[in-house]
């Protein structure tokens, strides 16, 4: 489809928010929250990108620190500079890279965004949210039931935060569907909510901090319509329902898989990137 053979420069986000390798982790955490982004490239003294710190990294570090020091809060971020915990390396593409090629890179590395490089400078970010517009333009009528990840990872609304945060890490997903006693979705607990709740007692119920914002669509919904709904809501995932039953989740990487054309997910080979 022509929209997938378009350079990423058409859809990418041009502003790149970065941090110095001397930036303390709590400040990186504040930047992610204030700018509503999922990661920042880390720059050395010469302003060269040397790695990335993401919400996944901060959640893992925060839970480890909390357990090590036997504290009652959900997360405790160590007050160390970014370079002390940074895993070197950053995945980039060029401005002329096609959307379909960038989607394949996202899938290969199981990441939700790739930075766009021009010479030695980072000039943009192409994420699973950005590729939604290419899916809208492609008008793919495929029902989302054939593209979703299933079953969905869920958490009861009265479950303690510590359990929910640990499940994010062990399941290697970025979000859990919060369900009521009948199994109906009532909210989302994602890495964003976990990091925002860093100072909350770890035995508090998930319901206290979950996001009630949801995008729920029927299994028969065409892919392009699901992409349009997710883009309008700035959502990273779409819950797929049939009647009053949650059937699965259409994640950012599921959208990328649809663009890359790598086929339908099975339960055994499902994306665990949330």
From TrEMBL:
Gene3D superfamilies, from UniProt?
Answer: CBS-domain
Please verify whether the record's keywords include Lipid biosynthesis: no
Report the superkingdom from the record: Bacteria
Domain CBS intervals:
12-68, 86-141, 148-209
The record's annotation in SUPFAM superfamilies points to:
CBS-domain pair
* InterPro entries the record matches: CBS_dom, CBS_dom_sf, Diverse_CBS-Domain
Pfam family name, one: CBS
Keywords tagged on the record: CBS domain
- Name-wise, this protein is CBS domain-containing protein
